Amino acid sequence: MRRISVVCAALCLSLAVESRGAAVEVQAFFGKEALPFSWVSGVFRDGNDVWVGTKNGTRIYSLAGQAWRTPPPGFQGNTVTGLARFGGSLYVATDAGLNIGGPAGWKAMGRIANAVASDGDLAASENTLWMAARTMTGGLLQFDGTGWKLLSRGEGTGVMSNITRLSVWNEELWAGTTNNGIYLFKSGKWTVIGPEDGLPGLWITSLAGTDDGMYAGSPDGLGFFNGNRWRVYRVADGLPSNKVSALKVYKNRVVIGTFDRGISIFDGRRFQNIGRAEGLSDERVESIEVVEDVVWVGTINGLSLVRIP
Q1: CB count, 10 Å around CB of 227?
Q2: What CA–CA distances, in Å, run from 38 to 59, 67, 111, 282, 297?
Q3: Which of 55, 64, 121, 136 has the most CB atoms in a 10 Å sphere around its CB?
Q4: Dihedral, CA atoms, 78, 80, 81, 85, nearest 10 degrees?
C-alpha cells in the first residue's frame, strides 16, 4: 500500500494509526484560527492561493507564505462555489453573485443577463467562460470576453437552471444536472445524455475529465465515458459508496468524494479508499482540490489534506 499522510484544518492533535497495512500520519486541525466554520463547502486553487469556502465565510491560504488571509476589499459573498481564470481576470462565484478580480480591484455582479448570478459553478475554455447560476431564476451563462448570454438548448426548452456542475473536456462543455443527466454542448449543438446511454443516474453531482475520458459522479455510482461508451462503477467494483459527491483529477487518476464514506483514489483499475479510520475529519465530502501531491478534502467537519507519494 502507498503511504498516506492526512492533515485536517486548525491543529488540535497528532497521531499515527495503521489501516489496511498502511502507516497513516494524522494531524487534525479545527478552530477559528484557520477557518470561520467547520462546514467546508468549496475548495479551489488559483496559482499560489487556495480558496476555502465554508458555510460562514471564506479564507484564502497562501502556498508561498503558508498563511491564511481574508478575501480582498470589494469581494462579496459568504460561500465560494466556483472559481476560474479567463481573459486575465479571476472570476469567483459565491452565494452573493460573481466576483471579478483584475488590476483595478474587485467588482461584483448580482445579476447577469436577467439571471440571478448566485451559487455559480464556473468553467473556462480558450475563448469562453461558462457559468451555471444554480438558482431557480438562474441558468447557464456564456461570456465571450465582451458580453454575457443566457442560454437555452433550443426553442421551447427554457433556461437551464437545473445544472449542478460544469466541465470543459476536449473543448466540449459538459453540464451535469439534477434531473436530466448531462447536457453536452459540442460543435454548436446540444445533446442530452441519460441512463439509457449508460449514465449511472439522472442526478449528476460532479464531473472530471482526464486524458482517458470523462468521469460523472451521481448518488447511484460513478460513470466513465472513454469516448465511445459508458461504464458504471459501484460498491461491488470497489467504491466505498455509490453516493458520489465530488470529483477531481490527480495525476490522471480521479479522486472521488462521497456523501457518506470519505474519498477514493481510482487509477482505472483499483480504488484506494480513505475515510475516518485513515484520518479524514468527516466522511461526508463536499469539495476536492489538488495542490501538487496533496489532495485538499472539504468535509462538513473541517478540511483534510491527504498526501499520497
Answers
A1: 8
A2: 12, 18, 29, 10, 12
A3: 121
A4: 140
* 85 beta partners: 90
Three-state secondary structure call for residue 180: coil
What phi, psi does 166 have (nearest 5°)? Answer: -120, 145
pLDDT at 20: 45
SS3 label, residue 294:
strand
Residues in contact with 62: Cβ distance below 8 Å, sequence separation at least 6, in sequence order = 48, 49, 68, 69
Rounded distance, CA 174 to CA 121, Å? 12
Burial 54-69 (b: 16+ CB within 10 A, else e): beebbbbbeeeeeebe
Q: At residue 16, what are phi and psi to the nearest 5 degrees? A: -125, 135
- What residue ranges define each of the domains in the chain, with the CATH number in brackets? 37-281 (2.130.10.10)
25 CB-side CA count, 13 A: 8
Share of the chain above pLDDT 90, in %: 76
pLDDT in tens, 90-146: 999 999 999 999 988 999 999 999 999 999 999 999 999 999 999 989 999 999 999
Pairing of strands 4-8, 22-29: parallel
Percentage helix, strand, coil, to 5, in the chain?
Answer: 5, 55, 40
- Contacts within 8 Å (CB) and 24+ apart, 166-172: 166/121, 166/122, 166/123, 166/130, 166/131, 166/132, 166/207, 167/123, 167/207, 167/208, 167/209, 167/214, 168/123, 168/124, 168/125, 168/130, 168/209, 169/209, 169/214, 170/209, 171/125, 171/126
68: its cell numbers = 491564511
One-letter amino acid for residue 82 of the chain: G
Enter the C-alpha cell of residue 245: 459527491
Summarised one tens digit per residue, pLDDT across range 191-235 is 999 999 999 999 999 999 999 999 999 999 999 999 999 999 999
d(CA 309, CA 294): 9
Residue type at 156? G
